[in-house]
Amino acid sequence: MPAFRETLPMILNVTLDGVMPVYRELFARHALTEQQWRILRVLWAEGAVTTTHLSRQTLLPAPSLVGILDRLEKRGLVTRQRSDHDRRKVHVTATDAGLTLHSQVMPALERIHAAVTNAINPAEWQAMQDALAKITNTISDQTLDDLLAEPETT
């Protein structure tokens, strides 16, 4: 059994706690929460998207997403429009003010990202991404019972 700080949840939490303060400081300078930034980041990259897509991309549950979008819309950073063809679908778009915020925030985000990625070489960065994706893909398809089951003997 690995030591507590060598378990995947602790490694990820320690890493997140180490890198997020500079991001949070940047978001705070623009009166944004991490969740609001995630939404805006998707909109800046993809344009108009559905709330379902936003929920999937940002890992924010739909009920939470509604309140976050309310606050972004109140600030004039996004608009929502119900689909004419399917009233269950709501499309979200960054406004001109939201796009202006993009031009203010992205240069700093790019510098932060460069500092993070430059901490290791490109091959290590790719290997880290590949390893984490492999872990995610392997574990996400299994239940706790699957993982706790005794291995079959032949």
Gross morphology is globular
State the major sheet.
3 strands, antiparallel
Content-based structural category = mainly alpha
| Strand and helix order | HHEHHEEHHH
Radius of gyration: 19 Å
Number of E-type strands:
3
Average predicted confidence as pLDDT: 93
Which regions are unreliable across 5 or more consecutive residues at pLDDT < 50? none
Residue share in helices?
55-70%
Number of continuous helical runs: 7
- Beta strand %: 5-15%
Strand order of the largest sheet: 1-3-2
Spatial separation of the terminal alpha carbons: 26 Å
Description:
By secondary structure, this protein is mainly alpha-helical. 66% of the residues lie in helices and 8% in strands. It is built from seven helices and three strands, in the order ααβααββααα. It has helices at 8-29, 34-46, 51-58, 62-74, 96-117, 122-140, 144-148, and strands at 49-50, 78-82, 90-94. It has a three-stranded antiparallel sheet. β2 (78-82) and β3 form a beta hairpin. α1 (8-29) packs across α5 (96-117).
What's the layout of helices and strands?
Elements: H1 8-29, H2 34-46, E1 49-50, H3 51-58, H4 62-74, E2 78-82, E3 90-94, H5 96-117, H6 122-140, H7 144-148
Antiparallel strand pairs: 1-3, 2-3
